[in-house]
Amino acid sequence: MIAGILCIAVTPYLFTQLGVGIDFTSQNANNIGGTIGGITAPFTGLLGSLLVYYALLEQVKANKLIQKQLDEQKVSDEESKVVGYLKKQLEIINSDINAIHFNFSPTKTNEGQTFQGSTLNGSDAIRKYLYILKSANRNCDSVLFAEYYQIDSIKHLLKLIDNFVKTTIVETISEKDMRYLTNEIKYHYISKIKIQFDLFEEYKSTKLAQCRACNKYHQGIPNEFFDLTHSINKGLNL
After folding, report:
1. How confident is the model over 33-48, as pLDDT tens digits?
2. Could you give the C-alpha distances from 238 to 60, 154, 178, in angstroms and in order?
3. Which residues contact 189 (CB under 8 A, 6 or more apart)?
4. Is this model's pTM higher than 0.70 or not?
């Protein structure tokens, strides 16, 4: 490009000052413009083409940069939506844990005094229901959750936590968000749920006696509860 500019600037001087067989005297002054134009036209044309070429190259680079920024913004927006969804799920899990409850009915003493019933919530309620399952004597026709529907709620809560852990692991989110979500679910799960199931591990159904009538396991805490906790433990590397 620099060479082209030099050619345009220097060539007219060389051709007009050196003998080239063309009369550049005042009587033929028109020859000067025509000669200079003819001499410089190829160089200016080439220079113009080069300028257009480099301008197009820069435009292509700019377009690629803009597209890259748009793609990164799109990924960032999608990641924000995923993180927002997972945080909402985390709030639901925490709320559901605290919503588990067990109500004690009012009782009367031998003297006729009545004591108001009390309520266990969250982790304490989960421990109470596990104790009920551990102690209950069920037969082949027993409906597990007929009397205590909250036991079924605990099972669905474990499924929700298991799904949350699996979703968090596979989603493409930042390391910071991954660490935050993982630490949060670990806190709620370990301190409120895992600690209770660990206490009753020995009362897992398959560790107790098998039913002689149907060869199934009716006693203790059903295996499906521990299958879910083991899956969660694996996902959280516990």
Report:
1. 566 566 666 767 777 7
2. 51, 20, 16
3. 161, 232, 236
4. no
